[in-house]
Amino acid sequence: xxxxxxxxxxxxxxxxxxxxxxxxxxxxxxxxxxxxxxxxxxxxxxxxxxxxxxxxxxxxxxxxxxxxxxxxxxxxxxxxxxxxxxxxxxxxxxxxxxxxxxxxxxxxxxxxxxxxxxxxxxxxxxxxxxxxxxxxxxxxxxxxxxxxxxxxxxxxxxxxxxxxxxxxxxxxxxxxxxxxxxxxxxxxxxxxxxxxxxxxxxxxxxxxxxxxxxxxxxxxxxx
Length: 223
Hints:
By secondary structure, the protein is mainly α. The protein contains nine helices and no strands. 73% of the residues lie in helices and 0% in strands.
């Protein structure tokens, strides 16, 4: 028997509530992916979760609140993903390997959480999610800039910023194609994204990546 049953009971209720919230968010993700955010309804989400609308309203007042909670959780996971994907690169790492590892991590996240793309790129997403997405985009650009500056310390900042925006833009454009396919075709489109980025960045970083430690990178051009 618990030492303090009065404290144990609220903890159990809290745990049940967290499980219910997770259940509702999972159902919302499925509905948003199927119908899009605009056409989704709380009734459809409750039906997908196997609960009554009244049960849903105990936790969320409306569809927007569900989307915001789901978006917040996905943003947190995404920040962890890009923190690992855009970590400093060992200069001995070949460009193909560095680009491939980063693209694979981002693609894996979006394939595991297709609702992220549905929420972030929908035509009528809640304002808070749009603001957080803009902030995430800015942070991603900053991380890519930092990565480029570590390879090109003498490059003009405006040029590095432009290159970072182009890299992220090419990835995001290809992501839609990746998510629209499955199996071997998805893998093929993923490889195409890598090929485009490698061919774009190759002349930019020159010998900076893939060279033996201490080697003199003389063929690198400015961004």
